Amino acid sequence: QDYFTDENRVLKKDPQQDYHLEYAMENSTHTILAFSRELHTCDTNDKSITESTVRVIWAYHHKDMGEAGQNYHGSNRGTKSLRLLNPEKEEVSSASLPYFDLTNKDVPVPDKDTTYWCQMFKIPVQHEKHHVTKVEPLIQKGHENLVHHILLYQCSSNLNDSVLDYGHECYHPNMPDSFLTCETVIFAWAIGGEGFTYPPHVGLSIGTASDPQFVLMEVHYDNPSYTEGLVDNSGLRLIYTPVLRKYDAGVIEAGLWVSLFHNIPPGMPEFVSEGHCTLECLEEALGAERPAGIHVFAVLLHAHLAGRAIRMRHFHNGVEQKLLAYDDEFDFNFQEFQYLKEERTILPGDNLITECHYSTVDRIRMTWVRK
Questions:
Q1: Is residue 104 located within the same domain as residue 235?
Q2: pTM of the predicted protein model
Q3: For residues 165 and 229, is the Cβ–Cβ distance under 8 A?
Q4: Residue 307's domain spans which residues?
Q5: How many other CB atoms sit within 10 Å of the CB of residue 185?
Q6: Ranges of H-type helices in the chain
Q7: Which residues form the DOMON domain (predicted)?
Q8: Which residues are catalytic?
Q9: What distances in angstroms separate CA 72 from CA 59, 66, 212, 229, one per listed residue?
Q10: Residue 3: is it exposed, middle or buried by C-beta count within 10 angstroms (0-12/13-18/19+)?
Q11: How many domains, the chain?
Q12: pLDDT tens per residue, range 7-37
């Protein structure tokens, strides 16, 4: 049956029944219900289902619902953020493929709110070109809320193995100079995300002279409770294959540059910031190297606790195209790549605008935007 609830959490039967049972099965251990609903029901008691994040809330009781109504679920309840309309990724079995891990070794996480830890790694020697087909997060058990995001940067190929001996806090006055050579992001993961599988025709190139030999892994630790004595060994697993795909993958970063000039006043129910990747920027970035443009197949929208919605806008010849990606119900704890239903071509001279919506209605101090 189709029920709805109000601010008092009282369940009420909806006079407009929009949910339809398609299939039901019950045995001694499981009850399975499959149901359908229109994405937009024109019922004020229903939420429209879009490509944004949907918070699915579930609850159950071991007894069936009687004439008197539902039984109280007690502790049999939970919630999960999902993108119901995100297209299924084609999962190619990687069980037999080789892989290598880039993981921190006993990093002492300071008892402070935010720490960025950087560690240099060397890509295992490949004597010919290979393609990375999947990247999986290796988050230490129990640290799922501590590790907020991981970035992988390509570094200068002129470095030597001495840079591998130590990690250091990123963006620190005393950090090694070698870290400054690592500017190009080649992979990104954020909290709540699962492994990222490249499409069957695309892979991240390793093993050639122009591919990364040294990479810097930046891990953002989020420790708002200032817990002491935390030691972390999280990182990434890269699965690769000698069977080459048609195209090499890359990363284009767009958005708001982290700076002291970007801040949000307290008590704001809605505050919008825009990051502009201008036509001059994309002309310079793509004009000589990629005159036919680049093809976007996935987007990772990233923000922090004040983030409420993110929209990636795309302009061609001054005319706005369909949104490249958006999430109007952003969930800080569920940041996962959105696979585009159709690849989008971005050409030299196009514009990209990253539109970030924030709420600081529950804050009394200025919010400084961070990475």
A1: yes
A2: 0.79
A3: no
A4: 263-368
A5: 16
A6: 279-286
A7: 1-61
A8: 116, 302
A9: 9, 12, 56, 40
A10: middle
A11: 3
A12: 888 888 999 999 999 999 999 999 999 999 9
